[in-house]
Amino acid sequence: MTKFLSLLLIFLFCYTANAQNDIIIKGTVIDINTQLPLEMATIYFTTVKDSTVIEYATTDKNGVFRINTKKIDKPVYLKINYMGYQTLVEEQKSLLESKDFGKLYLLENVNALENVIIKTEAPPIAVKKDTLEFNASAYKVRPDANVETLLKQLPGVDVDNDGKVTVNGREVTQFLVNGKTFFDKDGAMILKNLPAEIIKKVQVSDFKTKKEELAKQESSSDNSTINFTIDEKKNKGFFGKMLGGYGSDDRYESSLMLNFFNNKQKISVLASSNNINSTGFSMDDVFDNMGGGRNNNANRESTTSGKGITQSNLAGINYSDDWYKDLAVSSSYNFSNTITNNDSKANQLSFLPTGNILTESDAKTRNENTGNKINFELEYKLNPTTRIAITPKFNQTRVNSDSSSSSFSEDENGASLNESTAESHRENNTLNFANTLNFNKVFEKKNRNLSFVFDNNNTKADTDALNISETIFYQDNKPNDERNQTSSNRNTNDAYSLDIEYTEPITDSLRIRFGSDFDWKNEIKDQKTFDFDAGSQSYSDINESLTTYTTSRQNSVSPKFGITLQKNKFTVNLDTKTSIIAYDNHGLYLGKETDLNKKYALPFGTAQFRYKFSRSKNLAFKYDYSNTLPASSFLLPIANLSNPLNTIIGNPNLKPVEKSTANFSFRNFDFRTRSGYSLNAKGDYYSTDIYSTSFYDESGKRTTTYVNTSGTYTFSVGGNWNQSVKKDAHVLRYGLALNGTYTFDKGFTNAVMYNAKSTAVTPKVYLSYEYGELLVVSPSYSLSYNETKYENYTRDATSNVVHRINLQTTSYWPANLIFGNDFGYTYNSNISGDFKKDFFLWNTSLSYGFLDKKLYAKIKVYDVLNQNQSATRTISATSIRDEENTVLKRYIMFSVAYKIGNFAAEKGSKRKQREREE
C-alpha cells in the first residue's frame, strides 16, 4: 500500500507540474463588413520554421474558439481560414501565457467563387457546404501507415474494434477514391491497403444514391460517405505489397496487391491464396490474413463464420479512367474459389405442448464455391445539364457440395421416434445480370429536374442433385421413407423497373415531386425428380410427388407524390405512393393445376424531418409505412416433400406484411474538445406479419404452413459517447456505448400460439492509447444480456449473458521491430455444460523490417493457448440447439512481406517547392 501511495503522489506531482505548462488561447472570429460571427472557421497555429501544424480548433455558432495547448517558446503563425474569405495570418514570437485575442476580423474575397477556398495553404479542416474536408498532411502518421490509421487521427472520426467507421456519430457506408469505387464500396479494401502517404484530402459528406447525386438533391440517408483524394504529386506511379507464408499443419497464406496510377487512370491488381479461413483481400499490417482479434473484426465479410476450415483462392483487377472529358469509366473483375470442409455434431431439444423431442445429429460436408464477377460503371455528361450513368454487373457462381449426415430422435421418455441417414451431391450454376440506367436532366430554373431510372435483374439458376437417404419411423405404423433419386431444378427470375420523377420548385425552399414507378417481375421454378430404376440401372422413373412447376408474375403501377421544404436549419420530406399490383401465381403438381390470381392496392408513405443546430449538431426523425407481398411459395397450396421429416404447404389466404417504422437520432460533436455523443431510437410495428407454424405427428414428423399474425413490435434505443485527448506524443481515445432492445413476438408450437417478450441490453466500454509512433494499446469490454419471458408456453423464461474482453497491443520499438498481440476472452452462459463456457483466444506476431522497412520477416502464432472452440448454443422460442463444428486450431507461421512503390513526381517535388517559395 505504501508503494502504491508513493507512486500516486509522484503521478499527481508530475501531472500538476505538467498542467502548469498549459495555456488557453481564445478569441472570436467576425465578418468585418456584416459584424456577424463566423461559425466553423478554422483556427490553427503553425511553426514559422517549417509550417508544422501545432494545434487547431474551429469556431462555434457564436464565432468563438478556445484552444488548450502547451506553452510555445518559438515563433508561430496564427492562421484563420474560412471559405470565401481571405486568410488571416498573424506572427507570434511565442505563446508563454494564456491569451484572449478578442475580435479577429476576416475580409470576404471579392472574387470568391462558390465551393472555392482562395488560400495559400490548406487548413487542417475546411467546410464546403455539406462536405467536411480534412487536409491529410496536417495529421501525422507512420510512413508505412494505411488510411485506416489516418482516419483514427481525424477529429470526430472513430474506427472501433469491429471495424465500423463513424463520423460525428454517423456510420460511413461508402468509401471512394477520387470519387470512384475501389473494388467495393464497403471500405475493407481501401482502409487496409491504401497507404496514407499518398492521400491529400479526406472528404466526408452525406451518402447519396446515384439518383440524388445526378439530380444534385439533398441526401435522404442518415449515413455518410468518405472520399479519399490522391495527392497530385503521387498520382503517377505505382505501389504494392507481396506476402508469402508457411506454417505448421501445412497452413499457408500468400497475397499480392499492385496499384498503378497515371493521373486519372488507375489500375489495381490483387491476388490471394490461403487455408486459414480468410476469404478477402484486405489485410492487417500486423497479422496479415490471420483471423481473430482485430483482423477478424475488421473484416467481417472477409472471414468465414467459424463452421469448418476454408481454403481460399482469389484474384481481381480494378480499372478507372476518364476516357474523354465528359466520360468517366470504372470497372472491376473478381475471381474467387473457396473450399470449406466441416464436421458437425448437434443436440436439439424441441418443446411441444404434448411433450419434448430430443434429436441428435451429425454431418460431414464439403462445399466448393467458384465465382466470377464483372462490374462496370460509366457516367457520361451529354451537356452541362444532362447526365447518364450506366452500371451493368455480371455474376456467375458455381457450387459443388457433398454431404453425409445422420440423425436420431426420441421423446422425453426415451421412446424412439425416427432415425435417418443421408448422402447427397449437389451442383449449382447461377448466372446473374443486373443493370441500372440513370438519366437526369437539370433545367435552367434551380432545383427543377427530370429523372429516369431503369433497373433490370435477370437470374438463371440450374441445380442438379443426387440424394440417397433412408428415414425410419418407429411410431404410428408410418412406412419408412427410402430415397435413391436425382433432381434437377431450373429457376429463372426476371425483374424490371422504371422510375420516372419530375421535380418542380415552387419557391426557393419549397419543391414538389411527382411521377410513377413501373415494376414487372416474373419467376419460373421447374423441379423434376427421378427415382432409380433397378431394371434399367438408371434414374429414369419420374417421382410425381417431388416434381413441381410453378410460375409467379407481378405487374405494378405506383403513382407517387412528394414535397420537400428546405430551410437553412431544417429540411422536411414527405413522400407517398400507391402500388396497384396484379399478382398471378400458377402451379402444376400431381397433374393438378392451381391458379391463384390476386389484385392489390397497397399504400406506402415516408415522412422525414431533419434539424441542424450547427454543422456538427443535428437531429433526424423518419417514419416509414410499407406493405410487402408474401412469396409465391408461401401462397401456393402445393406440398414440398423434399425433407422427409418436414412437409411444407403454402397458405393461399395470407395477407401482405404491413409494417410501420419510426427512427429518431441525435448527434453532437464538439471539435474543440474532440468529444461527441449520439442517441438513437427505432421502433418497428407489424400490423400484419407472416409466421410459420408446424404440427408434429406421433413419429416426430412435421407439417408446416404459414399464417398471419398481428400486433408484434420491436423497440430499440442506443447511445454512444467518445472523446479524444492529445498531449504531446500521448493520444488517448475512449468511449462508452449502450444499446437496448425490447421485442414482443408471437409464434406457434404444434399449432398452439404463444407470446414472447424479449429484452436485450449491450453496454460497451473501449479506449485506445497511443504513444507517438512507438506504442498502441487498445482494450475493450462488452456485455450482452438477453432475457425472454413466455406466455402460454411450456417454459416461463430463458436468459443468457456473454462477456467479451479484448486487448490489442502493438509496439514499434525498437526501430524496425513490430510486436503485436491480440488477446480475447469470451464467456457465454448459453454454452452446454458439456463444453467450457469460456475460452481465451490469443494471437501474437513479431516482425522485423529490412531495406528501409520495405521487407518484413515475420513469425505469427494463432491461438497461442490452443483454446479456440466452436461450441455454440442457440435458444429459440421452440428449441435449444447445441452444436459443435470443425474449428481452426493453433498454428505457427513464418512469412515474408515486401512493399514496393515509386511515384514519378517525388524526385522533383522538393526543387519545385523551393521555386514556389522564391
Could you explain how this protein is built, in words?
There is one protein chain. The chain is mainly β. The chain has 7 helices and 48 strands. The strands form 4 sheets. It has a 33-stranded mixed beta sheet that branches. Strands 8, 9, 10, 11, 12, 13, 14 and 15 form an 8-stranded mixed beta sheet that branches. Strand 16 and strand 17 (252-262) form a beta hairpin. The longest helix has 18 residues, at 2-19. The radius of gyration is 31 Å and the shape is globular. The model is unreliable at 1-5, 10-19, 112-120, 297-305 and 906-918 (pLDDT under 50).
SSE class? mainly beta
- Major sheet characteristics: 33 strands, mixed
Poorly predicted spans: 1-5, 10-19, 112-120, 297-305, 906-918
pLDDT averaged residue by residue? 86
The Rg value, from CA coordinates, equals 31 Å
Structure summary, number of beta strands:
48
Percentage of residues in strands: over 45%
Q: Name the overall outline.
A: globular
Helix content: under 10%
Terminal CA distance? 64 Å
Number of helical segments with 4 or more residues: 7
Gist?
With 918 residues, the chain is mainly β. The protein has 7 helices and 48 strands.
Write the SSE topology:
Blueprint: H1 2-19, E1 22-31, E2 42-47, E3 53-58, E4 64-70, E5 76-81, E6 88-92, E7 99-106, E8 125-128, E9 131-135, H2 147-153, E10 157-159, E11 165-167, E12 170-177, E13 180-181, H3 188-193, E14 199-206, H4 210-215, E15 224-230, E16 236-247, E17 252-262, E18 265-274, H5 293-298, E19 309-324, E20 327-350, E21 357-383, E22 386-390, E23 393-411, E24 416-442, E25 449-473, E26 481-505, E27 510-533, E28 538-542, E29 548-566, E30 570-589, E31 592-614, E32 617-628, H6 632-635, E33 640-643, E34 646-648, E35 657-670, E36 675-696, E37 702-709, E38 712-727, E39 730-749, E40 752-771, E41 775-791, E42 797-811, E43 817-828, E44 838-850, E45 855-862, E46 872-875, E47 879-885, E48 891-903, H7 906-917
Parallel strand pairs: 1-7, 12-15, 34-37
Antiparallel strand pairs: 1-4, 2-3, 2-5, 5-6, 8-9, 9-14, 10-11, 11-12, 12-13, 14-15, 16-17, 16-48, 17-18, 18-19, 19-20, 20-21, 20-47, 21-22, 21-23, 22-24, 23-24, 24-25, 25-26, 26-27, 27-28, 27-29, 29-30, 30-31, 31-32, 32-35, 33-34, 35-36, 36-37, 36-38, 38-39, 39-40, 40-41, 41-42, 42-43, 43-44, ...
